[in-house]
Amino acid sequence: MIDPVRRSLLCRLGRSSAGLAVAFGLALGLVLAGPGGAAGAEFNAGTMRVHTPVAFSTPAAARNGAAYLIMQNRGSAADRLMSASTPAAARVELHSTVTEGGVMKMRPLTAIDIPAGGTVRLQRGGQHVMLLDLREPLKAGASFPLTLVFEKAGALEVTVNVEPVRGTGGHHH
Ligand SMILES: [Cu+2]
């Protein structure tokens, strides 16, 4: 039941129709956050609320990036994030991060469960929305639309704000 939806979203994005994605968001009655509207941004689809979607800037040579957000299920039934898509990347996957033999690896997930009344936080070093084959590097201060597809709450377009990379451990020079 979900597969045809997912496929059609991917096909549309394959033709890089940012306009369609925006029209889709407007059709759902969503208001896109303007520039600088980052703080406290939240987006709702039914009883699902998504807070503060964010990505970090990527170096010029980087092909991939990641997006992070908080999903709050205010309903009385469990829901699942099934897929996501964006005009900013050719493909989007849901990933978890696991450590095997001291090495951090990313694993594709078929879905991310959000329990009834529960909150799931996608964050660096954990579950994330993986952006594969970026159309262009993510620049701090920019933003892009990301459509999340939930099993029950349906499609929800959110605006992801790009923040400068901050050193969090080993990668800072
Ligand atoms: Cu990943």
Say how many strands there are: 11
Kindly state the mean pLDDT as a whole number? 82
Radius of gyration: 16 Å
* Beta-strand fraction estimate: over 45%
Poorly predicted segments? 1-38, 169-173
- What's the domain count? 1
Largest sheet: 11 strands, mixed
- In the CATH hierarchy, the third-tier topology is known as Immunoglobulin-like
Q: What is the CATH H-level superfamily?
A: PCu(A)C copper chaperone
CATH class: Mainly Beta
Helical fraction: 10-25%
Q: What is the end-to-end distance? A: 48 Å
Order of helices and strands: HHEEEEEEEEEEE
What is the approximate shape? Answer: globular
Bound ions, cofactors and other small molecules, one mention each: copper (II) ion
Put simply, the count of helices is: 2
User: Which architecture would the CATH scheme give at its second level?
Assistant: Sandwich
Description:
It is a single chain. With 173 residues, the chain is mainly β. The chain has one domain (2-163): Sandwich (Immunoglobulin-like), CATH 2.60.40. 13% of the residues lie in helices and 46% in strands. Strands 1, 2, 3, 4, 5, 6, 7, 8, 9, 10 and 11 form an eleven-stranded mixed β-sheet that branches. The radius of gyration is 16 Å and the shape is globular. Bound molecules: copper (II) ion. Residues 66, 95, 106, 128, 130 line the site of copper (II) ion.
